[in-house]
Design a protein that fits this description.
401 residues, alpha+beta, 4-stranded mixed β-sheet, 11 strands, 22% strand
């Protein structure tokens, strides 16, 4: 008997309050890395109504004892992020040129710094660069889509990207920045077969009719970006299901950095360790090790060693080696799982300094990651999406390339 289930994932647009905050945090990170690639950044934002708070711990070694705000315009970066998102309409309460931006920035704690620094310190067991915090990170890949990502989250991201593309083109003047999408996919024997339900909620001007929004979202967004073979007469479309979405963004809801971690990763199909990504420099393994895990998992699937692969790492603060590394192929491996794990540990190093070097992470690339998922994008700067380890993996498990 075949096994049937429905799985749903959501995505959010750039103007969603939480994504506004993620975007500001990653703009700050990139700006610091442009000044000094060794910057230590943990930046978080809060947004509500016409107010933004930028807070965190930032150390830019090249500046010495100078306050980074003397060189880096954090207020200007917040305004630019908001402007780039599209909050520039005259009737926006949350407006790029009118918001009040408050900054509360200190340097990185010296106690954390000595754990991360590649130097000896009293009580530290090694002189190597250690993890910036304890924690566990997951990476996931599967062969459901060309991006080797789960179908529900990729479909939801495609809808959000299309909405943003149309809005920023100016072709549909009633579209506003805040938006959410959700896609439910039916699976038979572990394979996606149909889209059963699509939800889109998009902010709009007050003068547009609901029926126009509904027609536009179905005909110009959903049917243009979702695979035709997945849509059928039974597919249900729920467009702005409350009937009205004029008040949006931080005017309608509070925003906070790091609150959309499932949107950022695998839409719930793969597990998540709990640590957010945006605003964190690559010494923070919440971000860098999650990217590393995705890189390895994607290459395992691309190499044909499994149809699904999930990796987990765990770290102790200040310690260079992970305290655990595990792999799960959910019964889809084409060679013994133990052999895959041995190959992974032979080919890759999971020490934080080595992760940064292998993936070339000390670059201002992070604003590219913020929206529509940190995984599954076709961008050469996002090195964790490369499948350049396929042949070495196949050789390491004993398959002739």
């Amino acid at each position: 008997m075949s096994k049937f289930f429905i799985f749903s994932s959501e995505s959010v647009g750039e103007g969603h309050p939480d994504k506004v905050c993620d975007t500001i945090s990653d703009y700050v990170l990139d700006a610091c890395l442009r000044v000094d690639k060794m910057s230590r950044v943990a930046c978080e934002c809060y947004a509500k109504s016409n107010t933004v708070i930028v807070g965190g711990e930032i150390t830019v070694p090249k500046l010495g004892y100078r306050n980074p705000s003397e060189v880096i315009d954090f207020v200007g970066l917040a305004r630019q992020a908001i402007r780039d998102i599209g909050y520039v309409n005259d009737d926006d309460v949350f407006h790029a040129d009118k918001v009040f931006v408050n900054c509360f920035i200190t340097g990185q704690s010296p106690d954390i710094a000595q754990g991360v620094d590649a130097r000896k310190a009293e009580g530290k067991k090694t002189a190597k660069q250690g993890a910036g915090d304890q924690g566990l990170m997951f990476g996931y890949a599967c062969n459901e889509t060309p991006e080797l990502m789960p179908a529900p989250i990729m479909f939801a991201h495609r809808l959000g990207r299309k909405l943003t593309e149309i809005r920023k083109s100016g072709k549909v003047p009633w579209l506003r920045p805040d938006a959410k999408s959700q896609v439910s996919v039916a699976y038979v024997d572990g394979k996606p077969t149909a889209v059963t339900n699509v939800v889109i909620s998009t902010q709009h001007t007050k003068d547009v009719k609901h029926r126009e929004i509904e027609r536009f979202c179905i005909e110009e967004v959903i049917k243009k970006v979702l695979p035709k073979q997945f849509l059928n007469p039974r597919t249900e479309y729920l467009i702005n299901p409350t009937g009205r979405f004029v008040v949006g963004g931080p005017q309608g809801d509070t925003g906070l950095t790091g609150r959309k971690i499932i949107v950022d990763s695998y839409g719930g199909m793969g597990r998540h360790g709990g640590g957010a990504f945006s605003g964190k420099d690559p010494t923070k393994v919440d971000r860098s090790a999650a990217y590393m895990a995705r890189w390895v998992a994607k290459n395992v699937v691309a190499a044909g060693l499994a149809a699904k692969c999930e990796l987990q790492f765990a770290y102790a603060i200040g310690h260079p080696d992970p305290v655990s590394v595990s792999v799960d192929t959910f019964g889809t491996a084409t060679v013994p799982e133990e052999r895959i794990l041995r190959a992974i540990r032979h080919l890759f190093s999971f020490q934080p300094a080595d992760i940064i070097e292998q993936l070339n992470l000390r670059r201002p690339i992070y604003a590219k990651t913020t929206n529509y998922g940190h995984f599954g994008k076709n961008d050469p700067d996002l090195t964790w999406e490369k499948t350049n380890m396929v042949r070495p993996l196949r050789r390491a498990v004993g398959i002739k390339a």
